[in-house]
């Protein structure tokens, strides 16, 4: 059971500061964000006994990283999320500086969590343990203990177990770094989810560390992960870290040359997927970046930082994985604010809207709140905003494979997710326009619709 003192200390933080966090004008209206402190990776995403469960890496005590908890939310429809008791706290010798990322599976009616116990001393020496916890009611979790210790050949950057069932066996992928400082993913196998056999490296290559691996099958096998250490190349990898995938074959391998970024925004990292009872492959990502820069986020002064992406459905189109917002999100729509067939638009828009442009017939330019711009030139879409560290502007870009026909944008108080051509290209980013600036301009012929989206704040 979770250490009561530590849990109470976290809940005291929620009591004391969540009022301030939730009244921050940048606090999202319909995205998941922490009631206090820092949110990072989505963890343990699963539909269990009909209910969706989503956990996340949570630092309740301040807006930086550190000894993480697992916060816990549940939902019946992927739209409204209810806050639950934190599931895991860093209260054992094997996870005392963090219950790091991991995943959930169901076995024998129990909800099982696999996560990384992080142990780091004051000199920065790290130990890492892959651990298990169990729950019978899906609310309170009991730690079972360490299942896997660090094998030879790897540094202690060895974490983020993702477990799934296939061919009547259980498999686990773990993000790792070899002793030669090369990023990779290792594979384990188990018959009973208790004892694990090391099967070797499943994929490796670029960068110095691969975090948060995930494996699933669309038309082909897909390996999803967040590599660190890729160098900027043309229009690619122009943000701190990326998340992407390799379409390959579980038995024949995942060649690193086939790596493609999943999202081209400024903030998209550590995504995790699950399959639901409709057979959909669902994904949630962290709209944030690890390794510093927290001080540049204005929300930091209001005791909270970072948020999740909206839940998305993944599909394979040729040799690409595309992402669509889950259809349940249409429930968020309240009234129609704009319906414009004549072309351009200029006017004020609130920041809890869905903006849809269809029948786009020419190069376009969009300016949102004097802060974020999107332009299409030929097949290239470029997004631009003020750099978070205040050093001028920053931009990212991606090339479409088919002509631009549609753009669907989900705008929240401080975020923007752009789905282009029904999910062929996606850009997920945070944005912090002046709170009183609402002016938006769309240039270029298209039909434009804007929906107001539910305006209550908070996850509940
Ligand atoms: C990714 C990550 C994971 C780790 C977790 C710790 O953002 O660094 O590799 O488990 O965050 O919070």
Automatic annotation (TrEMBL):
Residues 404-442 form the Glycosyl hydrolase family 32 C-terminal domain. Its EC number is 3.2.1.26. GO terms for biological process: sucrose metabolic process. It catalyses: Hydrolysis of terminal non-reducing beta-D-fructofuranoside residues in beta-D-fructofuranosides. Keywords: Carbohydrate metabolism, Cytoplasm, Glycosidase, Hydrolase. GO terms for molecular function: beta-fructofuranosidase activity. One of its GO terms (cellular component) is cytoplasm. It is found in: Cytoplasm. Pathway: Glycan biosynthesis; sucrose metabolism. Its main location: cytoplasm. CDD domains: GH32_ScrB-like (cd18623). InterPro entries: ConA-like_dom_sf, GH32_Enzymes, Glyco_hydro_32, Glyco_hydro_32_AS, Glyco_hydro_32_C, Glyco_hydro_32_N, Glyco_hydro_beta-prop_sf, Suc6P_hydrolase. Enables the bacterium to metabolize sucrose as a sole carbon source. Belongs to the glycosyl hydrolase 32 family. This is Sucrose-6-phosphate hydrolase. It comes from Salimicrobium halophilum.
